[in-house]
Amino acid sequence: MAEHFDLSIILLNFLGIAGIIVWHLQGRTRPTERLVAQIAFFLAMTATLVFARVNPFRFDSPHMDGDGTLVVSAKILWWTHMAWATIGFVRIYIVLDGRPREARLIQDLLVAMVYLGALLSVMAFVFGVPIGTLLATSGVVAIILGLALQNTLGDVFSGIALTLGRPYVIGDWISLSDGTEGRIVASNWRSTYILTGMHNLVVLPNSVLAKQGLTNVSKPDENHQILLPVRIVPNTRPKFVVDILHEALNSCNGIVHEPPPTAALVGINGTAIEIELQFRVTGPAQRGLARNEVIDLIYQHCNSNGLMLAKPPGTQIFEGSDALERAHISVERLFDSAPLFAGLTAPERAVIAASSKRGEAAAGSTIVTKGEKVETLVLINTGIVTLNDDGEEITRLAPGDYLGARSVVSGEPEFHEAKALTRITFFQIDKLDFEKLILSRPSILDDLSCRMSEARAVQANSGEPIVSAQARADLIQTIRSAFGSH
Prior knowledge:
Layout: H1 2-26, H2 31-52, H3 66-96, H4 104-125, H5 131-148, H6 150-165, E1 173-176, E2 181-187, E3 191-196, E4 201-205, H7 206-211, E5 214-216, E6 224-232, H8 238-250, E7 262-268, E8 273-281, H9 287-304, H10 321-326, H11 331-337, H12 346-355, E9 357-361, E10 366-368, E11 376-382, E12 385-389, E13 392-397, E14 402-403, H13 405-410, E15 417-420, E16 424-430, H14 431-440, H15 444-459, H16 469-483
Antiparallel strand pairs: 1-2, 1-5, 2-3, 3-4, 6-8, 7-8, 9-16, 10-15, 11-14, 11-16, 12-13, 12-15
Helix pairs in contact: 1-2, 1-3, 2-3, 3-4, 8-9, 15-16
């Protein structure tokens, strides 16, 4: 019987040492295989303990001979493998739960508790140390350390609270009450790391972060609303103003159109109609670009519809009839905001304006069909036009944009179908008049070549149009050749 006991204890030590060697050889890159090996060795050691009738949960005073030493080492190895198997289960559960990164603090806490429990068990059941007395003594030491490490412990427990509360996860964009905002890139026991929009890394202690008001921009998604106040001179009905600003928002390509943007009347007085524009963007990085585009389109639509921006409160002066006169809609005023004609002199604009013809189209009507060769350049005055390719919307055009440049300039068919999204008005410039304009103002070719090259990039499904200098020069030469200009 004693011989079987000795063999079981030797086998138990052998299994424990072999399990440690296999555990280290497998490494951290194979957690599943590591867990299987840990469970296998732990079960084998448990079966051996049962066969040898050794109770690891009871302290037996060991003899100071070889057998007693082997029993002590066997119990220590068994408790060590039990701790590793438990930790393996904890880590596998966190990975399968799909939250390995944000649950790092909880994982570390559970691992520490498992190791502490295993250490106390070894001291109590293997060496017979009175745990009650030890815990009472360690309590005094813990109080002293707690006072010395008060700030650090505050950060640690704040980190645990933030992890359990889950106000954010790694990768979320957050905004704090002190003005700090950015994306969470890392979090540990003591600090949270935030990458701001200016590409700076802000390190915040967890205790400071836990005390601040926090807005998670990424929840439920990163679409969030922007408010933009606008003041318009009250020389027309507020409903007309709201409709025009709605058109400006709907013609914007950089904002979210579902849910639709809105323009809400805030107030009215003798100097201004106050409106608040509400629109959404797809993420924090698009806020600046979207706001720039919206402001530019507000100017375009107001300029083409005879609306004037009011001066800030307290700085208004009486405009009188001059304001109404300047609000008169004409093709010359449209040239002020049309990039194509920005470089024309007043006499040149007057000549083109005199030869242009005003037209209009109802919402849903087709202005230019795909593959059509048009004989007039269409300059949008009011409303919104969409460019479509096989029924899919490519982009939206606003007042000041134009259609038909490819056909008029180079004789090539149009790449896209142009449809009126809303009721539109426009000015048509005949091809012969436009030829005279280009011959007298060659600089217009630069803008045309840029826009036509971008249209080619859009047709090729390029995310960012990239036009080489040589390609642009070739296009300019083609256009000049078409008009006989050298």
